[in-house]
Write a sequence for this structure.
């Protein structure tokens, strides 16, 4: 089996922890593209991208291998690589640090705060754990082993070396990591715990909320009540699958939406820089055998959920 040739090294460094865009020009058997500018205009047609790439070409900000500046009039070369940096929109600064709990030559484990996305997506690009850690720790090859919702706090694992990335990601894909979460929600004396919740969860692209639908279950969560005070419950949640928003959907299905949830049971629209009511959900425990070193690891978040100690402004059973 022939190994795919590796692309040449990028002539552009990361910027604010973000890699440059890399494109490889596809085959052109019909000689449809007379020049580079024509191809890129067609590739980015139908949106603001065509105008942006034309501006970058004009400014000499599109580079080929070795840092050669590319121009719109350059001949189209199938299979050639090019790189450029997009101009990034300003983002609200998420004013919370990302503490490192563990680091060795292969693995990094951090205690992510609420409101910080794990990886760049949508309007959250530089204000993400990945981008910030790459810069703060000078680890440009850092990559996530898994992802945690922006609104959920707690443990996130990263691979430090590219050659280890697949092994750590496979841990999660094969469900060889024991994960425990902690959540705060209303207390319902009529519900018995522990209980296992199973359902079919589907997420439609472009729709913020996932939904339970009829059909074969694809999501399973163990819900345990670990403490109670004043109508508020502390729950240990153990997911046995990894569907989008699974724990939030399952708690809502029990009639116990997690405190501070802006999506379940009702979608609200808090300001992106309103940090007063974080989702009371915490990735508390990660336990696994390291696929690179063979070490047995158990990590536990040092964070606490705000509403357990400060009830002001919180109402059990409401999300917004």
């Amino acid at each position: 089996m022939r190994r795919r040739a590796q692309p040449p090294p990028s002539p552009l460094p990361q910027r604010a922890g973000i890699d440059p865009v890399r494109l490889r020009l596809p085959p052109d058997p019909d000689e449809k593209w007379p020049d580079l500018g024509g191809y890129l205009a067609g590739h980015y047609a139908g949106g603001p991208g065509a105008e942006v790439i034309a501006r970058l070409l004009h400014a000499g900000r599109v580079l080929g291998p070795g840092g050669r500046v590319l121009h719109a009039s350059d001949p189209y070369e199938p299979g050639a690589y090019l790189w450029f940096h997009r101009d990034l929109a300003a983002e609200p600064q998420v004013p919370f640090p990302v503490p490192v709990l563990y680091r060795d030559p292969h693995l990094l484990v951090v205690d992510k705060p609420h409101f910080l996305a794990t990886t760049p997506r949508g309007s959250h690009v530089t204000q993400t754990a990945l981008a910030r850690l790459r810069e703060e720790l000078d680890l440009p090859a850092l990559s996530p082993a898994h992802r945690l919702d922006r609104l959920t706090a707690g443990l996130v694992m990263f691979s430090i070396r590219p050659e280890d990335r697949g092994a750590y990601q496979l841990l999660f894909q094969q469900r060889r990591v024991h994960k425990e979460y902690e959540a705060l929600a209303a207390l319902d004396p009529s519900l018995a715990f522990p209980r296992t919740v199973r359902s079919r969860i589907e997420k439609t692209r472009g729709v913020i909320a996932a939904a339970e639908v009829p059909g074969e279950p694809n999501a399973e969560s163990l819900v345990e009540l670990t403490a109670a005070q004043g109508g508020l419950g502390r729950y240990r949640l153990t997911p046995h699958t990894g569907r989008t928003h699974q724990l939030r959907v399952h708690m809502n299905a029990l009639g116990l939406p997690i405190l501070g949830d802006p999506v379940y049971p009702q979608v609200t629209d808090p300001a992106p820089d309103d940090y007063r009511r974080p989702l009371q959900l915490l990735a508390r425990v990660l336990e696994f055998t390291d696929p690179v070193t063979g070490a047995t690891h158990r990590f536990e978040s040092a964070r606490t959920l705000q509403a357990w100690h400060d009830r002001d402004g919180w109402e059990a059973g409401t999300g917004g």
Q: What stands out?
A: Residues 316-320 have pLDDT under 50 and may be disordered. The chain has two domains: 21-84, 100-309. The helical segments are 36-43, 49-58, 129-136, 165-173, 246-253, 306-309. The longest strand covers residues 219-229.
